[in-house]
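Example for tutorial group B:
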């Protein structure tokens, strides 16, 4: 499910978005939420602030048709890949990690001490998420994750990367002016809150542990999973209760 638009990605949409993320260049301008530790790193691998040529989707569709026709790609296999990342791998996995940390203080300690091992306890490790570090938001500190030179992203816990995460403006400005970027996502932090920017690499990826909102003390772990968003685990948003409560409960 594309959380920013509230609709299924679909097989062609999945391929189109992958092509867009890899091929399109970001347009300058403000970042709008839809959908410092800077250092060089190399990558073997690898959304909306991009002006995408209108024919990109058509090219992807044509390419897919040719590959299927020639027997190089199986439609059923593509559907399986989409279903895997849309329904079985995705932000819900990360939300389960966050909710568990909110209700289980011992798990929280393990998570912050060794993110890889603790996430592995819930079975949410895998390719693009083999080595994880979890950083916790507090009333005094807010964490933001970016990949400055590429688009390293923890797929097993967060699913499909949003287009804006790969955009050049976000990757550059998140480090240079993180408060302005967060403000453009609708998150205005008090001046006395420290903003820490974490640069994901091919060797390690980051997950933000958001603050638990006040007023959620009576919610079950399963209910808490439902209010944790992808953006809050990247650090461009806070978690709100269904009634719009503020963070500050049992963090």
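The residue assignment follows.
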């Amino acid at each position: 499910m594309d959380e920013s638009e509230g609709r299924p990605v679909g097989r062609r949409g999945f391929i189109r978005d992958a092509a867009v993320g890899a091929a399109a260049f970001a347009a300058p301008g403000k970042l709008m939420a839809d959908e410092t530790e800077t250092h060089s790193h190399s990558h073997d691998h690898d959304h909306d602030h991009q002006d995408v040529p209108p024919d990109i989707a058509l090219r992807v569709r044509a390419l897919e048709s040719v590959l299927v026709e020639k027997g190089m790609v199986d439609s059923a296999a593509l559907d399986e890949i989409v279903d895997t990342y849309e329904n079985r791998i995705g932000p819900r996995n990360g939300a389960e990690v966050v909710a568990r940390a909110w209700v289980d203080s011992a798990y929280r300690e393990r998570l912050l001490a060794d993110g890889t091992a603790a996430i592995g306890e819930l079975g949410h490790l895998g390719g693009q998420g083999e080595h994880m570090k979890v950083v916790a938001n507090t009333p005094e500190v807010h964490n933001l994750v970016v990949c400055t030179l590429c688009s390293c992203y923890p797929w097993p816990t967060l699913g499909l990367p949003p287009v804006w995460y790969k955009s050049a403006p976000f990757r550059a400005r998140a480090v240079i002016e993180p408060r302005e970027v967060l403000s453009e996502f609708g998150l205005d932090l008090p001046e006395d809150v420290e903003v820490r920017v974490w640069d994901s690499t091919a060797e390690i990826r980051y997950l933000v542990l958001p603050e638990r909102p006040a007023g959620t003390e009576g919610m079950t772990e399963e209910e808490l999973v439902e209010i944790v968003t992808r953006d809050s685990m990247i650090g461009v948003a806070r978690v709100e209760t269904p009634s719009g409560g503020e963070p500050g409960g049992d963090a």
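The chain has twelve helices and four strands. Compare this with the pattern of hydrophobic and polar residues in the output above.
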